[in-house]
Write a structure and sequence with these properties.
Chain lengths: 379, 379
C-alpha cells in the first residue's frame, strides 16, 4: 500500500537515531522535525511569514477546535486549511480524540465513539472514527490521524480497554478514508505497560499505515517511564516508517526521543510559555522575563541565539513589553522559543548525518544536568 | 537658527497643499506623512520589520508613558529609544502634556507645570517644560515637542489661559534644550477661537522653531470648526516650516488637513480600531469584522488593497481569528489599517507632485459622501 505522494527515506542512522525525509504534497519534511501548533488555524501571535522565517516545516492544527469553529465545512469551501490560513507547507491535523477526552465531565465514551458538549457554547456533538476522518478530509491537512483514545497511564484496566478501542477505530479510520492526497497515521496506545505497548505496536504496524504515531505519553507518567516505553516501541515498530511522538516538545524530551528512534514532534509548549512570559533556553532551562534582574539587561535572552528576537532586542526591552502587557512580547518570545526547538532538531539532524549524534547528546545531557537547578519554570 | 541636521524642502505645491522632505538624523521624512503611534515603545502588535514593510517613516512614542515605565533614564542607558525599540527610522516624542492633562482628577495645573498621579500605581510626579525636555532628551527622538496645555475648545476663558501658559512654556522649553541632534517643535494652541489661534501662531512663529505643531484640535470640536481653524493657521504660519497636526488620523481629516497646508499627522486610530475588530476603508468607512455577513466571504477586506493582509487572507479567516480571540487578528488588521493611511498620504503626495491633488480630493470627497451612511463605526 505505497502511496507515491508520501515516501519516507532514511538518510542516516546513528544507533537508534535517524535523519530522514518525508515527502508530502506540500513539501518535504526533513526529520527529526518539530511542528509548531496552530490550534485554531493560527500559530498564536505569528504570521505565516514569521513561521517561514523560522524554518518551520510542519504545522499542526486541531480538528476538535476547527470542527466547532469556524467549522470544517466552511474551511473546505474556502479551499482547505492551507489556503484558509495562508500556509503553503505541510499541515498535520490531529483526530480530535485527545481534546474530546480532555473534556472530562463533558463527554461520554462508548464502543462506537464519543458524545460531548462544546467548550464554547455547550452544544452537543458526536465524534467517531468516520466523523473524525470526514472532518480531517474537509480540513485537508497532508498528514491526518486515526481517531484514538488516550488513557490514564497508571490505570492498567482502562489502558487495555482504550487500547482495544483504539485498534478497532484505527481500522474504521482506514476504511473511512477517501482522499489519496492525505497520509493517515495510525496511533499506538497502551499507557506505560510494556506488554500493551508491544501488542499495540504489532496491531498498528500490521495495518500498514504510511506513518505511526505514539500517543498517550507525556500525559502524567515520569520521564524514565516515557523513555522506557519509547525503547520498547523502537524495537517493536517497523524501521522504515516515520514515527511521530505526539504532544512532546521540551528540548530534553526531543533529544531523548530522537535517541530512541522518534522522527517527528509537536507541542504547544514554546508558544504557551511565550504567552506566560517565559523564554526557553537551549538546554531545558526557562527564564521568567518579568524577573527584576533583567530590568537593565542590555543583552538578549541568549547572546549566541540567532533568532530575530535575540538579534534585535534586549532583555530590558522584552521585560518592558511584558510588564506593559504589550502584544509584541508574545510574538517575540514565541519566535525565540520556536527557534530554540527548530534549531535543536536541525542540529540533531546534522549531527546524525555527520555521525556525531552521540557526542551531541552527551554534551546536551551534561548541560541539561548543570542547568536543571537554575530555575525550570512550570507552566 | 538653522540646524543643518533638520532641513525642510518643499518640492511641490498645489493651492495650499504641499509635498516636501524633512531631513532628520534617522532619515528623510517625505511629506505629507502619517506617523503610527508606539505609545509604549512599540506600535501595538507589530514588529519594527512589519512597520518597515508598511513603509512607515515616522513613529510617535509617548513621553508620559515611557517616563513612568520603563523610565527615560533606563532608555537612555540602553542607548536611546531607537536602539531600545529597534527602530532605525525617525521618531517623534510628544511632550507628555496632553496625556497628563487627560488624567482629569489626577492632576493639578499651576503656572509652572503640572503635578499628577501615575495611572499605573498612583505615585506622585511633576512635569514642567524643563522636565519634559530633559525626559525627551533621554528618550532621544529626532523630533521633540514643547510642553503645552490643551484646553476645552468651547471654554473661551480657559483657552486663553492655556494658550498663554503654552507660550511661556514654549520659551522655557527652548531655553532648556541642550541636544543639537533633536528638532524641537513649538505648539500652537487657542481652541476654536480665530483671534487666539492667530495670536498663538504669531507668538510661536516668532520663536523660530524648526517645525510647528497644531495642538488642541480633534478634541471635541466639529469638523467644520477644525477645518476653519486650519485655514486660519495656514494663513498665519510661516510657509517654509513643516506643520504637524497632532492626534489627527481619519482619512477625511488627513486629506482635508493637507488641503489646508498640513504636512505631518499621527493617530492611534488605525491600531486602536484593529484591536476593536474594525477595518478602515479608503474613503472613511469602517467594517466590523465580526459581522455575520463576512462568515463565508472569500474576498479580503478590500480586493484592491495591496497590503499583506488583503493579499493573503479572506474576510472569513479574519472573522474566525477575531471570534476566536486570536492575537493574529490585531496584527493583520493593524497592518491593513496602517497601510490604508500610509498609502493615502503617499497617493496625496504623488497627486500634489503631479499637480492633480484637487482632482484627487474631489474624487475622495465624493466617495466619502457616498460611503458615509454605510456604517461608520465609532470607537
Amino acid at each position: 500500500m505505497i502511496n507515491p505522494l508520501f515516501t519516507f527515506q532514511i538518510e542516516a542512522v546513528q544507533n537508534r537515531a535517524r535523519a530522514g525525509s518525508f515527502v508530502t504534497p506540500h513539501g518535504v519534511l526533513e526529520t527529526p522535525s518539530f511542528a509548531p501548533v496552530g490550534t485554531q488555524a493560527t500559530v498564536k501571535s505569528l504570521t505565516p511569514e514569521q513561521l517561514s522565517d523560522l524554518n518551520a516545516s510542519l504545522i499542526l492544527a486541531n480538528t476538535y477546535h476547527l470542527h466547532l469553529r469556524p467549522g470544517d465545512k466552511l474551511i473546505k469551501e474556502m479551499g482547505g486549511l492551507h489556503k484558509f490560513m495562508h500556509w503553503s507547507g505541510p499541515i498535520l491535523t490531529d483526530s480530535g480524540g485527545f481534546q474530546v477526552f480532555s473534556l472530562a465531565k463533558k463527554r461520554v465514551i462508548d464502543q462506537d465513539g464519543v458524545t460531548f458538549r462544546s467548550h464554547i457554547d455547550g452544544s452537543k456533538h458526536r465524534l467517531d472514527p468516520e466523523k473524525s476522518i470526514a472532518i480531517q478530509e474537509n480540513l485537508g491537512g497532508d498528514i491526518i490521524m486515526a481517531f484514538d483514545e488516550c488513557s490514564d497511564p497508571y490505570d492498567m484496566q482502562y489502558s487495555r480497554e482504550a487500547m482495544t478501542r483504539t485498534h478497532q477505530w484505527a481500522e474504521r479510520c482506514q476504511r473511512a478514508k477517501t482522499r489519496s492526497d492525505q497520509a493517515l497515521f495510525g496511533i499506538v496506545q497502551g499507557g506505560i505497560q510494556e506488554d500493551l505497548r508491544q501488542e499495540s505496536a504489532q496491531v498498528i504496524s500490521n495495518l500498514d499505515f504510511p506513518g505511526i504515531a505514539i500517543g498517550g505519553l507525556s500525559v502524567g507518567e515520569t520521564k524514565p517511564e516515557m523513555y522506557r516505553i519509547l525503547e520498547v516501541l523502537d524495537q517493536a515498530l517497523p524501521g522504515e516508517k516515520p514515527r511521530y511522538l505526539m504532544g512532546v516538545g521540551t528540548p530534553e524530551d526531543i533529544i531523548n526521543g530522537v535517541r530512541r528512534g522518534v522522527d517527528i514532534f509537536d507541542c504547544v509548549l514554546p508558544t504557551r510559555l511565550a504567552r506566560h512570559n517565559a523564554a526557553m533556553t537551549r538546554f531545558g532551562g526557562r527564564m521568567n522575563i518579568v524577573n527584576a534582574q533583567y530590568a537593565q539587561e542590555e543583552q538578549p535572552i541568549d547572546p549566541q541565539c540567532e533568532c530575530y528576537t535575540c538579534q534585535n532586542f534586549s532583555l530590558a526591552y522584552l521585560r518592558h513589553l511584558v510588564i506593559s502587557k504589550e502584544m509584541l512580547a508574545a510574538t517575540l518570545l514565541s519566535i525565540h522559543n520556536l527557534h530554540t526547538l527548530i534549531d535543536l532538531v536541525n542540529q540533531i539532524r546534522n549531527s546524525i548525518i555527520a555521525g556525531e549524534f552521540e557526542d551531541f547528546f552527551q554534551q546536551f545531557d551534561q548541560k541539561y544536568a548543570e542547568n536543571k537547578p537554575a530555575g525550570r519554570m512550570q507552566i
